[in-house]
Amino acid sequence: MNPQVGIIMGSQSDLPVMAEAAQFLEEIGIAFELTVVSAHRTPQRMIDYAGSARERGIKVIVAGAGGAAHLPGMVASLTSLPVIGVPVKSSNSIDGWDSILSILQMPSGIPVATVALNGGKNAGILAASIVGAYDLEVGKKMDAFKTGLREKVEESAAQLEEKGWKAVLKK
To answer: Is the pLDDT of residue 4 over 90?
Structure first.
C-alpha cells in the first residue's frame, strides 16, 4: 500500500511524540511513511522531500519539530499539500512556546494547521480526517472513531448520573 501521509520530524528525539500520529494512522489503516528531515541540518533533504511528496502519493504531511521549529513552515512553503505542524517540547525549548509560536504564526499564504504541544495523536487524527474527506472507507472509519468518542462521554455522564460523582471517583 502506497503511503498517503508523510510523517517527518526534525530529529529522532521527536519520535516519541510523532509515533502517536503513526500509531493512530495504523489503527485506522492509512499507510504512511516516517522519517527524519531537518530544516537546519539537511535543508536539501527537506526541499527534495517536500518537492516529491505529491508525486509519491502523499496527501498530507505531518511535520513535528522542537525549538525554533522551522520544519513545518518551510515544508509548507515548498508544497501545496496540507501540512500539519506538531510543536514538540524539546530539551532546548523555551517550555514549548518557541515551538508553538514558530509553527502557529505563519505568514499569509503559507498556512500550517497546528495542533497542541506534543499533540502527535491529534495530528494523526487530523491527517486521517483530511484523507477521509475524499476516501469513503477512511471517512467511515473516522465517523466510527468520532462515534466512539461520543459514546465514551455519554457512558461517563450516565455513570455520574446513576452512581453520583463520589462513587465514580473511587474507581
So the answer is: yes
* Cβ count near 63 (within 10 Å): 31
What is the identity of the amino acid at 162?
A: E
Q: Which pTM was predicted?
A: 0.92
Q: Which residue did the predictor score with more confidence, 51 or 161? A: 51
The 3-state secondary structure of 141-157, one letter per residue: HHHHHHHHHHHHHHHHH
Where do the DSSP E strands lie in the chain? Answer: 5-9, 32-36, 60-66, 83-88, 113-114
pLDDT above 80 for 167: no
Reported as half-sphere exposure (CB side, CA atoms, 13 A), residue 56 has a value of 18
Question: How far is the C-alpha of 46 from the C-alpha of 30, rounded, in Å?
Answer: 23
Look at residue 129 and tell me whether its pLDDT is greater than 70.
yes
Grid coordinates of 44 = 536539501
The rounded distance, in Å, linking the Cα atoms of 53 and 60 is 9
